[in-house]
Amino acid sequence: MMMTTAAEGVVVKFPSFKITNTNPTLTNRRFATVRFGSRRLSSSSSISVVSSVSSSIVNEDEPKLGPVSLGHSTRPHFPILHQEVNGSKLVYLDNAATSQKPTAVLKALQNYYEAYNSNVHRGIHFLSVKATNEYELARKKVATFINASESSEIVFTRNATEAINLVAYSWGLSNLTPEDEVILTIAEHHSAIVPWQVVAQKTGAILKYVSLTDDEVPDTVKLREMLSKKTKIVVIHHVSNMLASVLPIGEIMGWAHDVGAKVLVDACQSVPHMVVDVQSLNADFLVASSHKVGLLPYILGFCHAYYELLSVMPPFLGGGEMISDVFLDHSTYAEPPSRFEAGTPAIGEAIGLGAAIDYLSGIGMQKIHDYEVELSNYLYESLLSVPNIRIYGPKPSRTVGRAALCSFNVEDIHPTDIATFLDQQHGVAIRSGHHCAQPLHRYLGVNASARASLHFYNTKEDVDDFVRALKDTVSFFSSFK
Amino acid sequence: MHCATLKTSPFHGRFPSQLTFPNYKNWTQFKPRNKTHKQSSLNSPKHVRISDSNLHSSPSSLVQNTHPPNPNSLLFCSSVTAKKLRFLVSEFKSLPKPIDRVKRLLHYAALLPVFDDSAQVESNRVRGCTTQVWLESRMDSEGLMRFGAYSDSEITKGFCSCLIWVLDGASPEEVAAVAADDLVDLNVGISGRAHSRVNTWHNVLMGMQKRTRDLVEERERVPRSENFPAMVVAVDGQSANTTYAETKERLCSPGLAH
Ligand SMILES: Cc1ncc(COP(=O)(O)O)c(C=O)c1O
């Protein structure tokens, strides 16, 4: 095999790769020590989360979480939340997997299918023109939402996974050569790892993985040390879908660009929850998935890249829409973004995404973020009261922000058993498993974890219900021991 | 429909009180296992009844299931395995509260026979579950299937315990004859019908069936061409117009084991 994988400081240190027959190992190191003023997540980051972390970690009387909170005022907009599951009120805490959709989005979709469903860029009739206009308007809305300078810099894809594959195949295959290095972290989602493994196999490039600090955040000092002239691209998440940590993308970008490397930012877990400004981040590629981002149905993601970069990239998939002229033996390709959107796109979804962006912008991403920071801290602190719990990722502090999710294990109870009981007995929806982050789980010495993830329509009561249910779950299983 | 014949000693006494079938004594009255059966196996036309339609069904809700009975279901057979399966289904059906079903599973989990550490190897892993599951399968000297399993999750152990109770000691034909649909009413958490990568019932059952097919094939591996006509008849009545190799490929392909 041509691919070489160098996982510096990763593999050797943790001999926990073997399969164990016990429940997920819970290390005694229950909570990472907090490093105040850590350089790694310093406030020089351009990411708002770091600077806006609440100073009071938890204040039960925090007005932001009270009865007129953002969660309380937006819940009515999400019809799906108002139902019973297994005889209990649904508490939906699996937002990192996918978010729920507000009525405004559902209406936009319905309106599209009722009033102007038609293929885009192809017909000259009324419906097609209307659909094309709305589809392109959605692209503009996405561009504005992430502050891209041109809507032509937004490529619609099926999901974030396809967006990453687009970069790996189009940019990666034509730019990577043997011995070139791709730097990733061990905390990447599988969809950010596997495409680069494939491309590395084809090109002979080397994958290098950055491990975690003792605080359980990707080690940006190591990342910086790993960078060299050989580095061609850095593939990193913005917010970790398991650790809830937030990387200082602005700083990393500077270091990477200094050695001439490109940066691909997986913003799946940040775009839905905070202001993401692609111009200030200056990422070469930024990808996200609209079902998380835009409170939208599946089948849509997007990739942002500067136009100059897109314009020199070869197509990823061939077909209709992406061509300029087709001859029997060759074709010429359309300009971006069409070049990368072969075939009929997910038109309704794009239009729904546009409506979702209107909805989110109506609230304000900063407001959403501030509320989620409060709720996230409340979740973290509340979970600490659960016996024998181990929460992964950094401890929140004045300087260390956590995204609104907690992955955890409870000693001697399998996370899937926890999730099953929470669902069956309490109507609480959380995720269990490896969350498409197996290397990270191995690193942490576990096979699986449970994860509760919030969105702005969740409330303090949701957190209370969940923690109460979790305690009941723990005592239920403990009584069976 | 023709069902697999019965074997004489269906019950391994180690099983849970709740599963003690009231008419258990009657089981010994069943006809002794037909000798010829042992040699038949996958090339015994009417016994194997796996078809795509059994495996690709739509997810059903947690509401007690009301799906139309599949006339080919093992549930309608009179074999011991079928009786056990029926018993298990009616037992779980009689527990409308999810918590009681979970409790019952945990009870069975505790009764799962000890699984040898040495069998916890990669080749015994059942793929696709959110928990780790190991399944050991062998064929005993009488040609009956023997299963052992272990999981790091208690609920999954309970699932395995139930499946093992039904299928340990069954003939390969009986193992093959259990359809994912037959397990619908055993649902705890995820319905037996849900064609989901996290459906443990489904994955463990598929694992048992795949390994059974492999073992049957191994037993039968004689130096002859795989191009003889397939003797496997599916529910859809598809006749043997494909070769054995093709049919095997179809039945054993990972697509079926999703
Ligand atoms: C951090 C991260 N990256 C990538 C993805 C992949 O998104 P999708 O499945 O929509 O392609 C996810 C989704 O779980 C994610 O959380």
TrEMBL record, chain A:
Cofactor(s) recorded in Swiss-Prot or TrEMBL: pyridoxal 5'-phosphate
Key word S-adenosyl-L-methionine present: no
Gene3D superfamilies: Aspartate Aminotransferase, domain 1 (3.90.1150.10), Type I PLP-dependent aspartate aminotransferase-like (Major domain) (3.40.640.10)
GO BP: any one term: cysteine metabolic process
Main EC class the enzyme belongs to: transferase
The UniProt record lists the keyword Transferase: yes
Highest taxon listed in the record's lineage: Eukaryota
Enzyme Commission number(s) from the entry: 2.8.1.7
Molecular function terms, GO-annotated: cysteine desulfurase activity; pyridoxal phosphate binding
Aminotransferase class V domain location: 91-466
Record field: catalytic activity: (sulfur carrier)-H + L-cysteine = (sulfur carrier)-SH + L-alanine
Keyword annotations: Pyridoxal phosphate, Transferase
NCBIfam families on file: sufS
PANTHER family: CYSTEINE DESULFURASE (PTHR43586), CYSTEINE DESULFURASE 1, CHLOROPLASTIC (PTHR43586:SF8)
Name this polypeptide is given: cysteine desulfurase
Species name: Actinidia chinensis var. chinensis
From TrEMBL, chain B:
Bias kind Low complexity: ranges: 51-61
Region (Disordered): 33-66
Domain Fe-S metabolism associated: residue ranges: 90-210
Family indicated by similarity: Belongs to the SufE family.
Pfam families reported in the protein's UniProt record: SufE
Protein name (record): SufE-like protein
Organism expressing this protein natively: Actinidia chinensis var. chinensis (Chinese soft-hair kiwi)
